[in-house]
Amino acid sequence: MNIRQLSSRAAGFDEELTRLLAFEETADEKLEATVASILADVKKRGDAAVLEYTARFDRLPLANAAAMELPQHELRAAFDGLPAEQKSALEQAAQRVTDYHRRQVQTSWSYTEADGTLLGQQVTPLDRVGLYVPGGKAAYPSSVLMNALPAKVAGVAELVMVVPTPDGVKNQLVLAAAYLSGVDRVFTIGGAQAVAALAYGTATIPKVDKIVGPGNAYVASAKRRVFGVVGIDMIAGPSEILVICDGQTDPDWIAMDLFSQAEHDELAQAILLSPDTKFIEAVAASAYKLLEQMPRRDIIQTALENRGALIQVADMDEACAISNRIAPEHLELSVADPQSLLPRLRHAGAIFMGRYTSESLGDYCAGPNHVLPTSGTARFSSPLGVYDFQKRSSLIQVSAQGAQKLGAIAATLAFGEGLQAHAQSALFRTNTTS
Q1: Which of 181, 211, 302, 419 has the CA that lies 20 to 30 A from 118?
Q2: From CA 332, how far away is CA 352, in angstroms rounded?
Q3: Is residue 275 situated within a structural domain?
Q4: Residues tagged active-site
Q5: Could you tell me which of 223, 180, 168, 198 has the C-alpha nearest to residue 80?
Q6: How many whole angstroms separate alpha carbon 272 and alpha carbon 260?
Q7: Cα 148 → chain centroid
Q8: Cβ–Cβ contacts within 10 Å for residue 207, how many?
Q9: Calpha distance 95→99 (Å, rounded)
């Protein structure tokens, strides 16, 4: 394996870093046309279309629309049937995720001005949320926890989960996570047809207000297309990790941290920034040594060779500057005093501080959400959280006295905009006549 090694001091480094970071998902016209057709068909024919696509793509012929839904007792049985160690791990992870997200809950507030006018904000949860969970080979119970639990903490009344079960194979850990997370309804459908069913509603599957959760290219395209009909969380790109290390951490640890994201898929990105040349060489040697132990070594190698890099920087200030330019999904600060770097870091989905904080802990059980902005969108986006399942309404209650002052201000501005009815609406409530 040959991971590129770069130096920030080398001529042309900026251009090379730009090429390394470049990722623009090219539109697949055939895929887009297929997704558009599926969405339109499900919108028109509802359950019948969903059943046809489920039989075609998941090789799962269902007798009728009711057969798409799993009964709650099956979810409970999946949870009860877990080995004790798995059940305990799932419960502990769920509790930690819940505890963390409870601290994110926003509350309503208001204040009253001297003349009796009340202004404020009312915070309310979404009524119904759809959760897309990958199925088949890519089955992630952690995704259920990270998407469902913040919604429940926010007070969402109903959570509807869709999960494909190709050939009828159900992942028991995913179903157990759904039970533990309080998912209300589970349908064994996937792909663009599941997104369409959640967005438009069918006779069997209720229309939701927002769709969250990861999926393949068809799912991502469908989510993009239904945005506006429903809300969505984000369109996620390939996984990313950026490690800043002072050269004092075990190089095997750092190599495996890079692997942890590279194993997701061939387009994943893993980058190390360090001022220590010998340490960079040690990490390269560790990666070469450890790769053969990895069941997904071909994926890891492709990702690291195509989009990975070990970069020598001048110092930690430069490391922070480059990190801000990258705006990584996951940022590890494997240094002696990670908190000292925080004031210099502006853009990252999640920041893992200290030598013992592997990114994988955040994926499963640390507590913060693992649904994070990718592809540089951490410059303007945040991790999924309770706030994604709450909305805010402004509160305005103007007193009779307040209407005199505010009415004059509003009328002046409305006349200036040529909107006579606006102005008169404000003036009618004042002692002024016009």
Answers
A1: 419
A2: 5
A3: yes
A4: 329-330
A5: 180
A6: 13
A7: 12
A8: 15
A9: 6
Query: Which among 208, 170, 192, 11 has a CA at the least distance from the CA of 75?
Result: 170
Same domain, 157 and 85: yes
How many other C-beta atoms lie within 10 A of the C-beta of residue 77?
Answer: 14
- Per-residue DSSP letter, 227: B
| Structure-token match 């770097």, residue found | 341
The enclosing domain of 306 has a CATH number of 3.40.50.1980
pLDDT in tens, 218-230: 999 999 999 999 9
Number of domains the chain contains: 3
Residue 338, token pair as written in the block: 């990670």
Interhelix angle 13-21/316-326, rounded to 10 degrees, is: 40
Q: How do strand 330-334 and strand 240-245 relate by DSSP bridges?
A: parallel
CA–CA separation, 334 vs 257, rounded Å? 11
Specify if 347 maps to a domain. yes
The answer to whether residues 127 and 59 belong to one domain is yes
Range of the domain at 64: 29-232
**In this predicted model, what pLDDT tens digit does every residue of 186-210 receive, in sequence order?**
999 999 999 999 999 999 999 999 9
Q: In what order do the strands lie in the sheet with 69-70?
A: 69-70, 185-187, 158-162, 128-132, 210-212, 231-232
Query: What is the chain's alpha carbon radius of gyration, rounded to the nearest angstrom?
Result: 26
Residues 72 and 146 in one domain: yes
Instruction: Write out the two tokens for 326.
Output: 């990258």
Same domain flag for 256 and 139? no
173, 205, 232 - which closes a domain: 232
HSE, CB side, 13 Å, CA atoms: give it for residue 157. 8
Segment 77-127, tens digit of pLDDT? 999 999 999 999 999 999 999 999 999 999 999 999 999 999 999 999 999
Find out whether 378 and 327 touch, Cβ atoms under 8 Å. yes
Domain-embedded: residue 15: no
Measured CA to CA, the distance from residue 159 to residue 170 in angstroms comes to: 19
Distance of CA 174 to the CA centre of its chain: 18
Render the burial of 375-412: b for 16+ CB within 10 Å, e for the rest.
bbbbeebebbbbbbbbbeeeeeebbeebbeebbeebbe
